[in-house]
């Protein structure tokens, strides 16, 4: 399921005002700036390794990282000098957009291809774009749901990567690439040091439900219609990712709601400062910060999760409430 997504991202730039959907870094520069300062503080907690890998998975137009680097260069130039920029991106079109803004980066197809060494990785709305498998409980066994001739069909799935239990009719989703990435990152962070920050949308606890969605022109579309023309996304199972990383030797913090995380990082003060320096458009900065943090907007469904070396102090924003 959702295999059509590689074709979707390869063929277009889906982000921004004219695109199919928008994301936090495209809503306000303050988002990337706050994440840049998060990375800078995390680097000091790591003991300021030099050089250090600064990586992003699924960087879209490169907006988040460009905003992050501007803030880092201003606030912690030592970190800016130590950082080696690595981007993980499969879409040739989006790689070009990233190259225009981040000419010094090195690109990779896969998180597993990042070079060895202490690393800080950022990823916003990356995991939700990876393909999921969907299973449905029928007669005491798991069936896999798949798409055939434009309709959902079911086939027996004795290999379902799920406990052999569940209520009749219950739907479970498994994002195998995300679990593989969490396990591999967990192992490398435990061995080589560093932290990975994932921001995405999904529930705090694993649970049943069908969350597959197609989005086109900012509206829900038919997931079965015109494969490759709409973005397919599914909720991220943060608890499963934390479990996979812990099993590989890493620590996990969160998930916590995005609104709580960004408020703790100072998003509102940054928005107020931007508003004060931008007369006439000031309200837009404050509204953007509210959109990212308000529980009824993006503040609660979106979550932040950190996977890191088990010896690292609690990363900024994840202190106990
Ligand atoms: N982080 C950006 C873009 C989110 S869209 C933002 O917040 O605006 C998802 C991004 O992940 C796109 O850049 C897409 O091309 C990339 N992507 C999707 N599948 C991928 C994969 N398997 N490996 C690497 N990048 C992928």
TrEMBL record:
Q: What is its EC number?
A: 2.1.1.-
Taxonomically, which superkingdom? Answer: Bacteria
Report the enzyme's class at the first EC level.
transferase
- Keywords tagged on the record: Methyltransferase, Transferase
Q: Which InterPro entries match?
A: NDUFAF7, NDUFAF7_sf, SAM-dependent_MTases_sf
Q: Which Pfam families would you find in this protein's record?
A: Methyltransf_28 (PF02636)
One GO term under biological process is: methylation
**SUPFAM superfamilies tied to this protein:** S-adenosyl-L-methionine-dependent methyltransferases
User: A GO molecular function for this record?
Assistant: methyltransferase activity
PANTHER family attached to this UniProt entry? PROTEIN ARGININE METHYLTRANSFERASE NDUFAF7, MITOCHONDRIAL
The protein depicted here goes by the name SAM-dependent methyltransferase
This protein's species is Pararoseomonas baculiformis
Q: What is the lineage of its organism?
A: Bacteria, Pseudomonadati, Pseudomonadota, Alphaproteobacteria, Acetobacterales
